[in-house]
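One-letter codes give the sequence; each number marks local geometry. A record appears below:


***
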Amino acid sequence: MTLKQFLAKQFIDVIQWNEPEDGMLAYRYPMQDMEIQNGGQLTVRESQLALFVNEGKVADVFGPGLHTLTTRNLPLLTDLMNWDKEFESPFKSDVYFFSTRLQIDQKWGTATPITIRDKEFGAVRLRGYGIYSYRISDPRNFFTQISGTRDTFYAAQLDGQLHNTIVARMTDIFANSDVAYLDMAARQATLGAKIAEEMKPTFAALGLELTQFVVESISMPDDLQEIIDQRIGVGMAGDIGRYTQFEAAQALELAAANTGGTAGMGVGIGAGAAMAQAMMAPIKPIANASAPPSAGTVRYCMECGKAIPEGAKFCPGCGRAQ
């Protein structure tokens, strides 16, 4: 390199970076055909870290503040006094900026149900989803393990890795959890904290800090949810009489929804009759205590709603067994 070529080289006095958009985690400062002047200024803003790579190796990390770059505080970047080597700089350094802002509202969820063993329902399939947040805490690890020498690196490029790792770890935690499914809704915050504790070492190995993990919802397949709803209905009924009323009300609602055609009318009549019988059942013992014995009890067919003679085993209208 001649003296003219050396003097024509561009020297950097100030190195700084402003995030141009959300989601950018790492940025390589453009250094092609440029060298850092001895005594130059490095500005690292709050929510940033700067990393110097010298001759392919991480040299130093600078936190927020204004730093003067000299040979005393980092490896020699440009030796302007090295005349005996024809003005060739013996060191080449690259500068990388990292955003340490929280990456919030990162979503996770189970693409397919995960199977666990519940102490009450046996083997069940669960779905779950929620959000989490993280930040870069160790730029050395993040540079060597994740971003490397790329010019830019975005949070979206990490989504798949983090999401799949979270779901796999969550499956292990749920499989070994003693919490019954019916208690999970009340303990979602506890489950979220447990998953976060289990995931923090995995994030740290990538140079990241997991700051928050939230379980927003845990749900079962629809068929199992229907069984649970029936159990809740039985529990609300309290006894067989009230459960019969509950079932009759459900049948009446179904009949009301199917109003078309003669069959629908028959179902509606039958359901109405059953509803009346069910609601009168708790009253009959009281009425029978003071009233004389009746000649017989009137029954109605659940299929077509016609009255069934006493002692008959089949409905005279539709022939259904009674």
Q: What stands out?
A: The first strand starts at residue 10 and ends at 15. The radius of gyration is 37 Å.
